[in-house]
From TrEMBL:
Protein name: Trehalose 6-phosphate phosphatase
Family to which the UniProt record says this protein belongs: Belongs to the trehalose phosphatase family.
InterPro entries with a match to the protein in the record: HAD-like_sf, HAD-SF_hydro_IIB, HAD_sf, OTSB-like, Trehalose_PPase
The protein's enzyme class: hydrolase
Gene3D superfamilies to which the protein is assigned, alphabetical: HAD superfamily/HAD-like (3.40.50.1000), Trehalose-6-phosphate phosphatase related protein, domain 2 (3.30.70.1020)
Alphabetical UniProt keywords: Hydrolase, Magnesium, Metal-binding
Pathway membership, UniProt: Glycan biosynthesis; trehalose biosynthesis
UniProt KW Acyltransferase keyword: no
Length: 259
């Protein structure tokens, strides 16, 4: 990947209006949806699912989620809609053809790490251990004091988990298999119908989205950072989740009317 600009804060422009020949890739938590104290407590705002459905139709189905969540969780959030999705930071992939690449079972050392983390989390009300099957996420958004202990547990467990890596995010550290990232998810989706041949546009808020920003830029696309985290590979920015939703709603109304 190219070097990120880490010097002066970047004055990034807002993205242009969504065009009908785009392929749109959306991170979910902290981007499309506001964070909540626990991952299952997020709220899908009124009208958002409808706007996404209209926008997806206007883009010929080329609208996908790229998330650290499992695809089953994304489906549950937006039910009855089922969008093409990359889950677990790209370890799971479902193109429009509904093809899921199901990863292997969790190693025993990961289960032991989960149990150890749950014992620690029990001492910090609000701390959460999220079991994602082949990955676990340790959350401290509602319990900042738990951060050091949870990070230490994750780092110690990593030594027993060959092929795994730590993924740091916003008030979370995740133990996950190392062999996929969101950039690879974008590359793989861009090779599939209905994404292939379109201009990739990716929106995300977190460190894990930087791989996708770089992949999108390499494909000549538009990368949109949500919020103000720096340094970043993103070429454009929107201030917050509400600004992203407004950008999408405008596109759904404008392009949806023509579709
Ligand atoms: Mg995010």
């Amino acid at each position: 990947m190219p070097r990120m600009s880490a010097t002066a804060p970047l004055a990034l422009p807002p993205p242009p209006p969504v065009q009908s020949d785009w392929a749109l890739f959306l991170d979910v938590d902290g981007c499309l949806l506001d964070f909540a104290d626990a991952p299952e407590a997020v709220v899908v705002p009124e009208g958002l699912a409808d706007a996404l459905a209209r926008l997806s139709r206007a883009l010929g189905g080329a609208l996908a989620f790229v998330s650290g969540r499992r695809i089953v969780q994304l489906d549950a959030l937006f039910a009855p809609l089922r969008f093409p999705s990359a889950g677990l930071h790209g370890l799971e992939l479902r193109e429009a053809a509904d093809l899921a690449h199901v990863p292997d079972a969790a190693p025993e050392a990961l289960r032991q790490a989960r149990d150890a983390a749950e014992r620690i989390a029990a001492g910090y009300p609000g701390a959460r251990v999220e079991d994602k099957g082949i990955a676990i996420a340790l959350h401290w958004r509602a319990a900042p004091a738990a951060r050091a202990s949870l990070e230490a547990t994750a780092a110690a467990a990593l030594a027993q988990l060959p092929g795994y890596r730590l993924q740091y995010g916003n008030c979370v550290v995740e133990l996950r298999p190392a062999h996929a990232d969101k950039g690879q998810a974008v590359q793989r989706l861009m090779g599939a119908t209905p994404f292939a041949g379109r201009l990739p546009v990716y929106a995300g808020d977190d460190l894990t989205d930087e791989d996708a920003f770089a992949a999108t830029n390499a494909l000549g696309g538009v990368s949109v950072r949500i919020g103000h985290r720096e340094p970043t590979y993103a070429t454009h920015t929107l201030a917050d989740t509400a600004a992203l939703r407004a950008w999408l709603s405008e596109a759904a109304a404008r392009l949806g009317a023509r579709a």
